[in-house]
Write a sequence for this structure.
């Protein structure tokens, strides 16, 4: 059994410390502003972590969320730790917009429309500054 | 504008304190072991809460998760805070099983099969003890 989040970074590296890493997901074209906070060690369930580590991972999730809110003013942030396919703890942090391809449904539901090109362009252009702002917030 | 999580409890009441409540979701027949941790005040985004409150809500999520793992031995726990339809902070805590209607897809994706009657029966029978164990864990 191999685990893709043990074997690979899993996306565009944004920030990391000894315990966890933040990556930008680059394989979901309809959702460019999609980050993951990945626990570095192979742990399946959130509640397997001691309180201090749980607080650290959620403080990191909140910091990523805060940057997305400040820089993009999304309609909503979606957070999730599912791991049905890859049972290695990772938190999805996704900026959602009223006009995106799935809203108000979750990103895992069927698409309701095509994502508007103007939204995708705005988000794509924002990504370098977003990555930098997330790293800055976590270094700060 | 009214908010259903301001106006109503939102499910079967399991536990509450000043800040939050735990409810069992009773409107998703395919997923009987489905709880929500609802922030009592109307807050839309997780990162709007100060650190102490974020830790409290996630400690509660972890406690619910731990009881589900201990009592049901699910294949995986799924956690999510979405709120696209009801932007009032609530965490979904869902016990998932390899044979459930959607696994390994998220519960918001199309169903892949009917949920086996034996699984639904086992979970339905476990609910009163689950509710009590969650309340006990949070009181403890």
């Amino acid at each position: 059994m191999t685990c893709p989040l043990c074997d690979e970074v899993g996306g565009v590296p944004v920030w990391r410390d000894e315990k966890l890493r933040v990556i930008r997901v680059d394989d979901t074209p309809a959702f460019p502003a999609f980050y993951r906070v990945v626990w570095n060690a192979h742990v399946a369930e959130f509640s397997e972590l001691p309180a201090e580590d749980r607080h650290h991972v959620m403080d990191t999730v909140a910091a990523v969320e805060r940057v997305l809110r400040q820089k993009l003013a999304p309609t909503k942030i979606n957070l999730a730790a599912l791991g049905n396919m890859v049972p290695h703890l990772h938190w999805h942090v996704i900026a959602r917009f009223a006009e995106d391809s799935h809203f108000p449904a979750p990103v895992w539901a069927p698409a309701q429309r095509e994502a508007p090109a103007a939204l995708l362009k705005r988000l794509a252009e924002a990504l370098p500054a977003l990555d930098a702002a997330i790293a800055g917030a976590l270094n700060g």
In short: DSSP finds three helices and five strands in chain B. The mean pLDDT of chain B is 97. The beta strands of chain B are 12-16, 20-24, 34-39, 76-81, 90-96.
